[in-house]
Amino acid sequence: MKRGVDDLALFGGHAEFDQTLLVGRPSTGDRTKLYERLDRALDNGRLTGGGMLVREFEDRIAHMAGTRHCIAVCNATAALEVIIRAQNLHGEIIIPSMTFIATAHAVRYMGATPVFADIDPVTGTIDPDHVETLITPHTTAIIGVHLWGQPCDVDRLADIAHRHNLTLVYDAAHGIGCSHGPTPIGGFGHAEVFSFNATKVVNSFEGGAIVTNDDDFALRVRQAHNFGFIAPGLIGGLGTNAKMSEASGAMGLTSLDVFDEVVAHNKAGYDLYRDLLAGLPGLTVHAYDPRHRNNFQYVVVKVDQDHAGLHRDVLLDVLRAENVYALMYFSPACHQLEPYRSEHPVTLPHTERLAEQVIALPTGPATTSSDIHRVCEIVRFAIEHSAEIAAQWQDNQPETAEQLVSSHGEA
Ligand SMILES: Cc1ncc(COP(=O)(O)O)c(C=O)c1O
């Protein structure tokens, strides 16, 4: 309980949490089951390359996503790269800038140019109207991102891709178990990509999956993710090694076993955050459209400095000093980062506004309701004492503060 601003850890007080509270503590499930699965893989000696655990994992992901095909991969970034190469996507690929840098880097790493589109200011997902204005004769694809598990405007994007004969792929790194209306994320566009990185709601240590209903696409991608092999001894073309290992399959299956419980836990945490932070000036907990299913792996808060009285960065510093490791998902936006900002400077007003305001708060299986109460108390205290905190913060970090004040003044 903070009585005054000097009790904040940022200004020399005692940190609220002894151990760091993270945004995405891994969802590991039942360890006994994990060890049983690992034992089975070790016993049968097949540790990668089409083992039974990865096959089972692929079947379960395809079932959840409602797709005919699932190819498990070593991570979502490699999955995007495999798709770009296997589909020979070159020239310009339109993507949102409000995403993790992996989306942009995958495009660029494969030799294509990411062209950044602005977002819908309400959902934060790619704006189809802006996408359409960015299409040139060099455009070969659109990669939408289902930000925080919210579906893109899949109907509009499908129409645009169809009219311009473009490949349409979704980065669904956040999207496992989410939907567009009643339809699960997974079957939209030519293919979609999930991430099962340790911080995600389904965790396979590192991992991802490509899901699609297109038989040819699936075949090409399956070959490309395994050195181009069509069959043992037979290579159909170029490929890389993006396979998922059996150890990751074991973790992924064990994490999937508790998926429903984890989502229920996250939803309860999300509701609690919304209740406890309601009514604070300048602070909004991002609302998910109830027409679509969400997995609630992200509790995103937006800080509007004009009304909150302090900048997002100040609140972030306050929280981190208390050992609440909140994250900026995603800030800066991709077009504000190198190499993109030097090479192709662009202005994306909605993206820049959101990137300046977002904070993702701790959630996941290891975050208790007591943790959430304590985090919200700190946030409430910070907003209620915003003027004093902002002034003291500015005194401590004069240069950064000046930059923030001036950039805000220009906006
Ligand atoms: C939107 C988005 N795309 C891609 C990735 C990359 O996923 P991975 O870590 O599995 O490569 C992430 C990871 O967090 C992400 O958030």
TrEMBL record:
EC class of this enzyme?
A: transferase
- Domain of life of the organism in this record? Bacteria
> Record's Pfam families?
DegT_DnrJ_EryC1
Supply the Gene3D superfamilies for this chain. Aspartate Aminotransferase, domain 1, Type I PLP-dependent aspartate aminotransferase-like (Major domain)
Cite the EC number.
Answer: 2.6.1.33
Q: Which UniProt keywords apply?
A: Aminotransferase, Pyridoxal phosphate, Transferase
Q: Which GO terms describe its molecular function?
A: dTDP-4-amino-4,6-dideoxy-D-glucose transaminase activity
Protein family per UniProt: Belongs to the DegT/DnrJ/EryC1 family.
- PANTHER family named in the record: PROTEIN RV3402C, TRANSAMINASE
Name of protein: dTDP-4-amino-4,6-dideoxyglucose
* Organism (species): Kutzneria viridogrisea
